[in-house]
Amino acid sequence: MPTVVAMKKLWVCVIALSLVGLSSPAHAQVPPPALAMGSGILVEQGSGKILWSKDDEAIRAPASLTKILTALVVLENTNLDDPVVITPDARAVPGGRTYAEAGWTFTVRDMLWGLLLQSGNDAAISLAYVAS
């Protein structure tokens, strides 16, 4: 799961690569900056062209992508004010970061904050029960 520092480094890389393209003569080959991340890829949205990659064939756990997909499913199937009860399964899951106790009740809105900002697996489990 990328840290805030890793994400900032990625954005710096994106900006640096953009600036390199603007300031260098007709597509001159300039090596990208060294990054501490294990792997990554930068794709142009419109064409799908790979602009930069580092070990892009590596198999990685989906981590935060799973949480984003969980949030999308929750948003499609619930209302933000619907109640979410913390289950014992959610409380016991490794990676729980909201530290909510089993039986506590929150709104979907509040649990989405716990899911997306805290990257809480406990919030993901609780929201999955509500959206199913």
Question: Any descriptors?
Answer:
alpha+beta, 4 strands, 132 residues, two-stranded antiparallel ribbon
Written overview of the protein:
- The radius of gyration is 19 Å and the shape is elongated.
- 45% of the residues lie in helices and 11% in strands.
- The chain has 132 residues and is an alpha+beta fold.
- Helix 2 (64-77) runs antiparallel to helix 4.
- It has a two-stranded antiparallel ribbon.
Secondary structure: elements and pairs:
Layout: H1 4-23, E1 40-43, E2 50-54, H2 64-77, E3 83-85, H3 88-92, E4 105-107, H4 108-116, H5 121-131
Antiparallel strand pairs: 1-2, 3-4
Helix pairs in contact: 2-4, 2-5, 4-5
Query: What number is the mean pLDDT?
Result: 80
* Strand order of the biggest β-sheet: 1-2
Fraction of residues in helices?
Answer: 40-55%
Distance between the termini: 25 Å
Main beta sheet, described?
A: 2 strands, antiparallel
Q: What's the β-strand tally?
A: 4
- Uncertain stretches of 5 or more adjacent residues: 4-8, 12-24
Question: SS-based structural class?
Answer: alpha+beta
Approximate strand percentage: 5-15%
Indicate the overall shape. Answer: elongated
Q: Helix-strand pattern, N to C?
A: HEEHEHEHH
Helix count, per DSSP? 5
Could you tell me the radius of gyration in angstroms? Answer: 19 Å
Question: Can you describe this structure in just a few lines?
Answer:
The protein has 132 residues and is α+β, with helices and mostly antiparallel strands. It is built from five helices and four strands.
